[in-house]
């Protein structure tokens, strides 16, 4: 999923990146993974981490969390003989956006 184009706006001396252009929804398969991972009743709170060896999937899932939950945490969990294991999670809507 390509990154959304952004522009920088300065408000009271603070630079803020805001999206521009058309709204692009995350792909359906990524939304299904997110829905299987998180608690629909507690979407405003921290979510369980999702682990994958696929870097593109981890990036798509991170952008999906950005779109629906306001932010994401993408880390390298460990490097194994099978490749790099990525951990994707979210601290929840309240953490990134507030009440």
Write the layout of secondary structure elements.
Elements: E1 6-11, E2 14-19, H1 28-37, E3 50-52, H2 55-69, E4 73-80, E5 83-89, H3 93-96
Antiparallel strand pairs: 1-2, 3-5, 4-5
Helix pairs in contact: 1-2
Quickly list its features.
two-stranded antiparallel ribbon; 99 residues; alpha+beta; 30% strand; 3-stranded antiparallel beta sheet
Low-confidence stretches: none
Largest sheet: 3 strands, antiparallel
Total number of beta strands:
5
Total of helices: 3
Short description:
The protein has one domain. Helices cover 29% and strands 30% of the residues. It contains three helices and five strands.
Describe this structure in words.
With 99 residues, the chain is of the alpha+beta class. The protein has one domain. Helix content is 29%, strand content 30%. The chain is built from three helices and five strands. The chain has helices spanning 28-37, 55-69, 93-96; strands at residues 6-11, 14-19, 50-52, 73-80, 83-89. It has a three-stranded antiparallel sheet, covered by helices on one side. A two-stranded antiparallel sheet has the order 1-2. The longest helix is centred in the middle third of the chain and has 15 residues, at 55-69. The chain is globular, with a radius of gyration of 15 Å. The mean pLDDT is 83.
């Amino acid at each position: 999923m390509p990154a959304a184009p952004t522009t920088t706006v300065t408000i009271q001396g603070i630079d803020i990146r805001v999206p521009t252009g058309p709204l692009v929804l995350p792909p359906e398969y990524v939304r299904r993974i997110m829905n299987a991972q998180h608690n629909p009743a507690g979407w405003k709170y921290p979510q369980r981490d999702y682990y994958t060896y696929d870097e593109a999937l981890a990036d798509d899932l991170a952008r999906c969390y950005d779109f629906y939950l306001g932010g994401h945490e993408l880390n390298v969990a460990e490097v194994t003989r099978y490749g790099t294991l990525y951990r994707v999670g979210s601290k929840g809507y309240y953490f990134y956006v507030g009440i």
